[in-house]
Amino acid sequence: MEKVIIPRSEHSVSRSQLSPNGVKVLYKLREHGFIAYLVGGGVRDLLLGREPKDFDVVTDATPGQLKKTFRNCRLIGRRFRLAHLHFHDEIIEVATFRSAADATPEEPPEEAVEPVPEAEALEQERDGRRRGHLHGPRMLKSEDGMVLRDNVFGTPEEDAVRRDFTVNALFYNIADFSIIDHVGGMEDLKNGLIRTIGDPQVRFTEDPVRMIRAVRFASMLGFNIEQRTEAAMVELSGTINKATPPRMFEEILKLLLMGAGERTYQMLRHYGLFEPLFPHFDAWLGRESEGFPHVRVGKALEWVDDLRGEGLPVSAPLLLALMFGEYLEEKIAVLRETGLPPQQAADGAVAAFAGEMASTVAIPNRALLAVREILTLQQRFQKTPGRNGRGVIGRASFPDALQYLRFMEQLTPPKRSLVDWWQRYAEQQGEPQPVEAAETVAAEDHKKKKRRRRRRKKPAQAPAE
Ligand code: ATP
Ligand code: MG
Fold first, then answer.
1. Known catalytic residues?
2. Domains, the chain, ranges and CATH?
3. What is the pLDDT of residues 172-197, one digit of tens each?
4. Which of 37, 200, 391, 447 could potentially form a cystine with 229 if both were Cys, beta carbons 3.0 to 4.6 Å apart?
5. Does residue 182 have its Cβ closer than 6 Å to ligand 1?
């Protein structure tokens, strides 16, 4: 593809829209004689008039040179080596131009499919062995074409074409404020199209997570997926599970928490991506419940979208509890019927669920424990607290559990709202008032510690009712 340069007068990106730290980094690299481009979602979103989430920079400076140039630099990454420049309230990610995984002349020998350990790779760089002189393979593919390691420094053009979609591969050049387009991204941006760079079959085989990303960008930007890209997704959707389960969990979270989770859910189903990711849940969704389809998951995701639309954070456990709530409640009920007490039934249900998911979307243990707590608190909410009330409101997941109950109450409004009751009770107890939305697991953990300490200082109080 021809390289196209769009001069400052013909595009809408201006320095004033960038974060001041981003501008500083770009200028400093340039002062030191390096190429410095803004790239990825930052450029895409500025061109669309959206507020970028973060600013990524690419340069011809190597990680080692970045470390020398910036005092606030930390090198990170196992799969990709990157520099993180730490500022007071922001991290700017700086990557060295990498060459396309499938365009490297150094195709590894068939037997060399083991990833090169990070330490060894760093060692090689320190030794000053550069492009073409490395002993170990730097780009590795498994036999079915998946990229296992991709750390080959390259030219700007090579860096552009190894990216996922054309709209994500535009460079904003700080040297003359132009946009550099190696892949036809400007055209696709104007036409609202998500298109892989190169052959979609090859690109989705290299990294199946790109299919999930295609759904994310289409849904987030309101774009269409270009025809050939779409056809490849339908054909390859069954291979989605070749991505590692922990990485898939991270992508799924991003996907469902960006504010268009319900639409995304429908798209995943449409492209045949949902079934291989959540086979047991999908089979359950396909079975009717007393003659009715299971509609709660769609409603739950809409509700999450509403919260996100109001700018409220939603924790991973709350998302999971809402999305899989009805499914888990059913599992719990089945175990209860075998005579298990509530807590053990919840344990068993969550453990079974985790087992079902482990090979596709690995949910971290902490999140699973919080999901269980959100569900078990629902039963305790149903009773007046007695002496156990403080135990309920002191739980780390209390805010999330209350939020879950709020969702359930708006599905079937009760005569007397338990949410209001518990909220008032928590206030009377002098606990920090549960925040409107759930918080991150980390924040909850922190709060849990604080609450424990506080509880010890105060003598137990009489229950409110
Ligand atoms: P967001 O606004 O959600 O951050 P983004 O486009 O910045 O969207 P990131 O996940 O932050 O997405 O990735 C930054 C850039 O890195 C992308 O724009 C793309 O150019 C490249 N990239 C990310 N993941 C992949 C991938 N799996 N394959 C190829 N390129 C990728
Ligand atoms: Mg980004």
1. 54, 56, 164
2. 1-191 (3.30.460.10), 278-436 (1.10.3090.10)
3. 999 999 999 999 999 999 999 999 99
4. 200
5. no
The DSSP secondary structure of 131-178, one letter per residue, reads TT--SS-SEEE-TTS-EEEE--B--HHHHHHTSSBGGG--EEETTTTE
Cα 170 to averaged position of ligand 1 atoms, centre (Å): 12
Ligand 1 binding pocket includes 456 (Cβ within 6 Å): no
pTM of model > 0.90:
no
Torsion angle in degrees (nearest 10) through CA of 160, 164, 170, 172: -80
Q: Could you give the 3-state DSSP secondary structure of residue 3?
A: coil
How many angstroms does the Cα of residue 44 sit away from the middle of ligand 2?
10
Q: Please report the atom of ligand 1 found closest to the CA of residue 53.
A: 2
Structure tokens at 242: 């070749």
210 lines ligand 1 (CB under 6 A): yes
Contact between 140 and 147 (Cβ < 8 Å):
yes
Residues of the chain with pLDDT under 50: 102-136, 435-465
CB of 168 sitting under 6 A from ligand 1: yes
Predicted pLDDT at 441: 41
Q: How far from each other are the two terminal CA atoms of the chain, in whole angstroms? A: 73
